[in-house]
Amino acid sequence: MSREQRLFSPRADFLAMICACLFSCGNAEDAPVRRGERFDIAEGRLSLILPDGWEKTDLNAGDVVAGFATQDNRSSLFIREMEAGLGGGMQDLLDGTIANYEATFKVRDVGKAKTGDVPGKSRKWPAIFTTVEATVVKGSESFEMRFYLFIFDTGTHLYLVQASTTKPVREARESQIYEFLRSLVANS
After folding, report:
1. Which candidate, 101, 90, 72, places its Cα nearest to that of 173?
2. What distance lies between CA 167 and its chain's CA centroid?
3. Torsion of CA 162, 167, 171, 177, to 10 degrees
4. Dihedral of the CA atoms 40, 42, 47, 50 (nearest 10)?
5. From edge to edge, which strands make up the β-sheet containing 46-49?
6. pLDDT, averaged across the chain
C-alpha cells in the first residue's frame, strides 16, 4: 500500500469531498460564539478565532473535525485530524496531499514549503505550509482556485488544514485565511 493510500481515501472520494467543499451551497450553521472570540474545536484539542464573514459548515462533517466557509461559499477551510505516526510525518502528509491534488485537478503551481510552528499550552508545535494553484473542473465548468495547505504535529495528532478561495484572490480573503491559520492554538 502506498503512502498516499494510507493517508487518504480513494481519489474519487477525495474529489467528491473537495468539490463538495468548494461548490456546495448548503446552509451553514451560525457559529456558537461571536466573531473575534476564541473557541475550542476537536473536543478541546484545538482552539481558534473565527474571522468576520465566516460560519461553521456541515460539509464533510464526517471527514473533518471542523469546517468553516465564507457566507458566499467562495472560500472555505477544513481541519482533518489523524493520529501521529500512522503513515508518516508532516512532509509525507504534505507530499501525499499535493499528489492527490495533482491526480484530481490541473495543478499549475505548487509553492515552496515553509516551516513554522503552532502555539500550545506548554510548547510550540512544528508546522509546514504551502499553496497550490489549480484548475478545478465541475461538469462543464472550470474554476481557478488557490489552496492553502497547513500541517502541524502535536506529538499525538497530525492536523491538516485545507483552505481554499476562488481566483482572482482578493487580498481581504487571503488575509482572513492567514488570520484564521495564525489563530490556531493546540491545547496540549
Report:
1. 72
2. 17
3. -10
4. -80
5. 38-41, 46-49, 185-186
6. 83
pLDDT tens digits along 120-144:
988 999 999 999 999 999 899 999 9
Residue ranges of domains in the chain: 3-186
**Contact (CB, 8 A) for 49 and 38:** yes
Q: Cell numbers 487518504 label which residue?
A: 8
Q: Which CATH number fits domain 3-186: 3.30.40.10, 3.40.1000.10, 3.40.50.10320, 3.40.50.300?
A: 3.40.1000.10
Other Cβ atoms within 10 Å of 149 Cβ, number: 22
Instruction: Identify which of 10-19, 85-94, 156-165 has the greatest average pLDDT.
Output: 156-165
Phi, psi of 18 (to 5 degrees): -65, -45
Does residue 4 surpass a pLDDT of 90?
A: no
pLDDT at 21 > cutoff 80: no
Distance CA 93, CA 89 (A): 6
At 161-175, the pLDDT tens digits run 999 999 999 999 999
